[in-house]
Design a protein that fits this description.
heterodimer, A: 129 residues, mainly alpha, 2 domains, 82% helix, B: 252 residues, 13 helices, globular
């Protein structure tokens, strides 16, 4: 049943969001701390575990894959409702602060990736050889 | 005319599916025929979305881009936080636990490094533009973290409304630039494996920017980047009004 997968996905998101909100309250922060990331972990655990097979195999899995495939269209809709006009109204300060933050962060990606060990690189090298 | 309008408005989510579907079809066609696949179709679709958002915002004076145009109201639901988070979580289906563990440490480091680096740069730019009030400098720095951390920090430490607005604008510039820039720099920063995607998500942090930027680069990387990015705003809101504000107050 497709709805089983969709329900598993929904329950993961709700549990993750609740955990994220609770973390926010515990830390005294006015924000959801990692709710979506925690929800993703729940789904990864469920899809890697044998006890949840009924909710992730066959048609049930198709229910999750459908929403995964809807990701790009949803992101396009998300882009279409960004407050782009306000970003361009922010003037030079906003523009320079935003741009500088992005460029420096881009440059740090390879630096910090190396910190975590070179396992991933090794995998891709093995594949290309 | 009224008849069309009422049907469109009553079925606004369905209209959004159709409009986005047509946009993506046109974008993939353009990517294939005009750029011969050099630019990813989804990158073009996202750019078209941002252009529509600009004109929607300018013509209606609203804050939700194209979703403020009555006939396209469904875009707001389809691309809103609820559906975005639902689809992001769905992309985690099939992710191997091993990949996450392998990049875990680098991912955690990247979240803290990302918040601090963006904050310092934002704060430095604020100082260059002549701000001397610690609350204003902190708020603009927090805006360079994300457009949510900016106002949360600003309100907590009592920055002026004008400064808070400026911090939101800085965060929006960052988010939009990540959406557009990621596919362009992906090769140069070796953004091609789960580990670098997790680091990327942690460094950039803007969930919308990371979501769209990775979608336009390689959809397989999305779950890894999104995973770390969703912790970033929380960490930013934690550090902005506390540690980072104290640091700025001590230094200025």
């Amino acid at each position: 049943m497709i709805i089983y997968g969709v329900a598993l996905l929904s329950v993961s998101l709700i549990l993750g969001m609740l955990t994220g909100e609770a973390l926010g309250v515990i830390l005294g922060v006015d924000a959801n701390v990692g709710g979506v990331g925690i929800a993703m972990l729940f789904l990864v655990f469920a899809s890697n575990s044998a006890s949840f097979r009924a909710l992730t195999a066959g048609a049930a899995g198709e229910g999750i894959k459908f929403w995964s495939a809807m990701y790009i269209p949803i992101v396009v809709a998300m882009a279409a409702q960004q407050n782009v006009a306000a970003a361009t109204d922010g003037g030079m300060l906003a523009l320079i602060a935003g741009m500088a933050a992005v460029f420096v962060s881009f440059a740090l990606v390879p630096v910090i990736s190396r910190l975590g060990g070179s396992d991933s690189d090794a995998v891709s090298k093995r594949e290309t050889q | 005319m009224e008849l069309i309008e009422s049907v469109f408005i009553r079925n606004n989510l369905i209209v959004a599916f159709a409009v986005v579907g047509i946009t993506i079809w046109v974008s993939y066609l353009a990517a294939d025929k005009l750029t011969h696949g050099r630019i990813h179709g989804s990158a073009i679709a996202i750019a078209l979305g941002l252009v529509a958002a600009y004109f929607g915002g300018v013509s209606t004076g609203g804050t939700r881009g194209a979703a403020d145009i009555a006939l396209l109201g469904g875009i707001g639901l389809m691309g809103g936080g609820m559906m975005r988070d639902f689809a992001i979580v769905a992309t985690a289906f099939g992710v191997q636990l091993g990949e996450l563990k392998k990049a875990g440490l680098a991912g955690v480091i990247s979240i803290f490094a990302g918040v601090v680096v963006s904050f310092v740069i934002g704060a430095a730019v604020a100082i260059l533009f002549g701000y001397t009030d610690p609350a204003a400098i902190t708020t603009i720095g927090a805006g360079a973290v994300t457009y949510i951390v900016g106002p949360v920090t600003g309100e907590a430490i009592g920055a002026s409304d004008a400064v808070i607005t400026l911090s939101v604008a800085a965060g929006l510039v960052k988010s939009i630039l990540v959406m557009i820039g990621t596919p362009m720099v992906a090769g140069a920063i070796r953004l091609n494996n789960p580990q670098s995607a997790m680091v990327f998500g942690g460094l950039m942090g803007t969930t919308s920017g990371v979501a769209a930027g990775l979608a336009a680069t390689d959809p397989k990387l999305v779950p890894y980047g999104a995973m770390t990015a969703t912790f970033y705003t929380g960490v930013g809101c934690l550090m902005g009004p506390s540690v980072l504000y104290f640091l700025v107050s001590a230094l200025v």
